[in-house]
Amino acid sequence: xxxxxxxxxxxxxxxxxxxxxxxxxxxxxxxxxxxxxxxxxxxxxxxxxxxxxxxxxxxxxxxxxxxxxxxxxxxxxxxxxxxxxxxxxxxxxxxxxxxxxxxxxxxxxxxxxxxxxxxxxxxxxxxxxxxxxxxxxxxxxxxxxxxxxxxxxxxxxxxxxxxxxxxxxxxxxxxxxxxxxxxxxxxxxxxxxxxxxxxxxxxxxxxxxxxxxxxxxxxxxxxxxxxxxxxxxxxxxxxxxxxxxxxxxxxxxxxxxxxxxxxxxxxxxxxxxxxxxxxxxxxxxxxxxxxxxxxxxxxxxxxxxxxxx
Amino acid sequence: xxxxxxxxxxxxxxxxxxxxxxxxxxxxxxxxxxxxxxxxxxxxxxxxxxxxxxxxxxxxxxxxxxxxxxxxxxxxxxxxxxxxxxxxxxxxxxxxxxxxxxxxxxxxxxxxxxxxxxxxxxxxxxxxxxxxxxxxxxxxxxxxxxxxxxxxxxxxxxxxxxxxxxxxxxxxxxxxxxxxxxxxxxxxxxxxxxxxxxxxxxxxxxxxxxxxxxxxxxxxxxxxxxxxxxxxxxxxxxxxxxxxxxxxxxxxxxxxxxxxxxxxxxxxxxxxxxxxxxxxxxxxxxxxxxxxxxxxxxxxxxxxxxxxxxxxxxxxxxxxx
Lengths: 309, 321
Known about the structure:
The complex is a heterodimer. Chain A is mostly helical. Chain A has two domains: 32-77, no CATH class; 92-302, MetI-like (MetI-like fold), CATH 1.10.3720.10. Chain A contains twelve helices and no strands. The longest helix of chain A is centred in the middle third of the chain and has 37 residues, at 87-123. The N and C termini of chain A lie close together (6 Å). The model of chain A has no long low-confidence stretch (mean pLDDT 81). Chain B is mainly α. Classes of the chains: A mainly alpha, B mainly alpha. The A-B interface holds A 14-16, 18-19, 22-23, 26-27, 30-32, 137-138, 140-146, 149-150, 153, 157, 243-244, 246-248, 250-251, 254, 265-266, 269-270, 277, 281, 284-285, 288-289 and B 150-151, 153-155, 157-163, 165-167, 169-172, 250, 254, 257-258, 261-262, 277, 284-285, 288, 291-292, 295, 298-300, 302-303, 306-307, 310. Chain A: It is a multi-pass membrane protein. Chain A: The chain crosses the membrane at residues 9-28, 99-119, 131-153, 173-194, 275-302. Chain A: Residues 95-299 form the ABC transmembrane type-1 domain. Chain A: Keywords: Cell membrane, Membrane, Transmembrane, Transmembrane helix, Transport. Chain A: InterPro entries: BPD_transp_1_N, MetI-like, MetI-like_sf.
């Protein structure tokens, strides 16, 4: 197990470097004056340009810039923006909101998706099965912003059940339920379908028949034997989804005005604050890679037949 | 998903080897019919699926709409009259008027073209990149496979929306007003971020196909690598990629709308569903119809492609029956 983790960690390094370098290169070294529009209508003063060029190592080749940036980042220094605000602070205030939103979305998609999947997987073909299949197809095809706006208009403006914007900065959990549902709705459909097909496949397996033949109660057969064996693809999906939920939160955060990193990075891109963009993306990539690794570790817990040697 | 193709090929080989047995089997099962190939078997199965018929006819209508919008409406989609700005649906304009006073029904009809073009081009490019690399990685294996898989991991690690925003804003799509250039950039950024999925699907299908007897037989007969890849592995590994491509086409149309919605994809002189949705963003509270009608068309189109992909998958994978 230890050696496997080590090997996986070593494999992560080139991917991590590749992804972050790609973003760094895209943000910093493409044609265009990085100081354009930074100082209002006037061109920037020489002193400011010189100071910032030194600050962001803009005089170096891009690989050296990237190396210096990464060295600072690994020591916990995210750098400062052009206007001198610490990027680390900005991320520290915004990130908890996004984590909360992603966790709410993950919880909603896991609870609803898995229960709907189990229900239809056990029942087999029938009205309920078709209903759930059509609903999942519909959810898959609905773009997130449509779901978001429709729920915002109907539940917020028309019915007044929810607040239409989440303006407080440590966003209260209660107000994140609807945004979380919007963010997780697409994945919820996938979780449902995965669980359904996995349960339907394992329902006819030998160990389930054995468990039934031994006279185990239905709850134990389904809850322990069937669920645990069907969980692997679902857990894989949920684990990798946590990373993509955080990356995909830009639109949901925009609609409901949640002050998370999606919002931060979107404004960073529009105002060409490269430090914010690279910082946030690096963080997201790291979360994504680590959650993948943890998911792989979980396999051995769920299914003891899987060994890492 | 490659199992059915193996089974079909295996059956074909045995039928030529021992005629008597298969002849007897055919009398029993399918009368005088010749054994069908996987493709014709799948087609036969598809034609009776309600899911396929519904999605197929929807897609047909949408394609006709994209090709000949004049058949559905005689109103000019770019003609705007501020006097009727944000008017709701009426008998004159079924879907009402948008912020500028242009007919939403006409715009929705004409908008199909841009959305379909972007979706199709992005799908073709994704399948070309991902399919080629996946086939090569699966066939040659070794260091080439390792290198390509790592490169795919790099692109796969980028969150989609975030990556597309960075690419589009970095390559100056925000400043340019050249329609073809913006479309090209949108297509490229969607494909660049999506090809790893296609490559992984193709790679695993290619690895399965490579170990089959017909590939060994072809090699024993002296076929070179390009012939084995193109004539033997590609047809047998194409099924899962076909399913992926169908679903991806729908997803890419949605992605185009999402990018336009963020103000980074197609924009104003182009009429597309994404542009219409982006235009409606600030006025949804007072005029929700400006969002709902293009969004309904968008959702229906995506739904049609996802449904078609589902139907094709079930037809190609007999295990699901």
